[in-house]
Design brief:
The structure holds 2 protein chains of 2 kinds. Chain A has 5 helices and 9 strands, in the order H-E-H-E-H-H-E-E-E-E-E-E-E-H. Chain A is α+β, with helices and mostly antiparallel strands. In chain A, strands 1-7-4-9-3-2 form a 6-stranded antiparallel sheet. In chain A, strands 6-5-8 form a 3-stranded antiparallel sheet, with no helix packed on it. The longest helix of chain B has 16 residues. The two termini of chain B are 14 Å apart. Chain B is globular and about 50 Å long. Chain B contains 10 helices and 10 strands. An 8-stranded parallel sheet of chain B has the order 1-2-3-4-5-6-9-10. Chain B has a two-stranded antiparallel sheet with strand order 7-8. Helix content of chain B is 29%, strand content 15%. The chains are: A alpha+beta, B alpha/beta. At the A-B interface, helix 2 of A face helix 5 of B.
Amino acid sequence: MIRPTPEQKKQWEQEGYLVFENAIQGDDLKRLQSAFDFWAAECKEEWLDRVEAGEAAATFYDIPNPLEKDPIFIDIIDYPSYYGALMEFTDDDLILLGPQVRTVAPWPVSYTGWHPDVGQSNPLHIKVQIYVNDVAKGSGEFGFVPGSHKPDTGPYKRPLLQESMPGHKTFPGKAGTAIMFNSCGWHTSMDNASDTPRKSIILIYEKRTPGKIGPEQFAAISEHCTTPERRKLFSLAD
Amino acid sequence: MPRIDAHVHVFTKVSPEFPREVSPNWPAEREEPAEKLLGEMDKHQIDQAVLVQIGGTSIEHHSYLLHCLKSYPDRFLGIGLVPPDHPNPTEHMSELADGTGIIGFRLFELGGPRDIFATTDAREFKTHPIWECAAEKDYVLWLYPRSIDAHLLPYLVQAFPQVRVVLNHLGMTPGKGKFTLDEFGRPQIQVSGYNLNMHTTYRLARFENVTVHLSGQYAFSREAYPYQNLAGWHGNLLNDFGIKRLMWATDFPWILEEPGYGELTTIIEKLLPNLSESELADIMGGNAKRFLRFPNRS
């Protein structure tokens, strides 16, 4: 586990995000890309049926129950390159809320506007977005307003155009890049005017609140969680 | 400022003069005529309304709508329908709208690929000629697309920035198999608690030619009037589209028995309680008058 440097801790506190370039690389990245592409293709028709039934949005889709589909999706939950920072910022009391293994289609408009996920009263809520393919500028890259996670900033209002958000920063990156951010901060997916879908995985964590996630939530992958640390992360019984 | 009900339906019994198709909700003997609507409107100080065609797409099926528009030219404007497989939709649209008070056409399907990943060129969409015609003749397009078509909209809206677009019924996009009638004969659309249209139709807010109806709450809510569980959706639409691009409507006659026409004339102030008087007036009619170009009442 790699703990954050003093500089990283300072940036986290002040700006609310950290970027880990090459967080996942080599064979692990290939495994991740291969599993992502296989299961995205496998699940696509079912997603389209759900869109037609009005049960899923037409502009992006998530592979259902990814943790049960390939162990690589479990292995990235506590991946060394960013796991130490997650533990540090949550006082070593971290839980996983869930993953979103997401494909976002090119579209004239971003599928989502600027928003925070939670309010200030929520326990520390952290997301890690991992790019599975290269995400160039203008192809649905992550956008964040540095400092917007702080209670004394704002108020912020969602602008009609993504690029009109005051003070925002965008994060194009290579496959394997991980961006960690405080979900109180205002963030979005920028417009994807390219012809390439954005493939990314969004891991959602929180500082533990007893009972928030029951042991049944991730029981299906219990056999892959053999260490006490990992069982705690997945809120599994000892 | 006039108060305008921006989406209603009227129809009469099936007759040689006014032929129409029938359905469980509008059987041959049922009639909800314009005079009944006008009675409700006058009772509740509503000046004008948009009559939206139901009961068929052919020219003949529009007979009663055309009759009402001719009889009450300063009270109503009309929205027509286009047969889905019409070989020459431009001809159909022009014939219906030529000096009749029909200002636009309602579409339920957009005719493009169901898969967003296969969507590239709006010119290949089946309804592209309808949009071209609307652009050329300055018709309004009245949209209530299916869920599977929601992703097609921005390609068309972007291609035709001059076409005025009205998203019906809170910008919702009904899913296949999710439509039923309730005990009052009202359409009921089963929707998920999380509003998926936040990721489709609501994203059209950046296009200034797109407006949204605040209507149809009864069909999506599982609560009784005033449907407080939909207050958040109204707030989102207000935030995204702004005060000048929202239009109040009742969806008469489906709401006559429950909750009643009069109740719906106050729904906006209940679901958006922080509006100023002038903002409320915009939504209750000012925006419809400007956007749809309603005539002054004589």
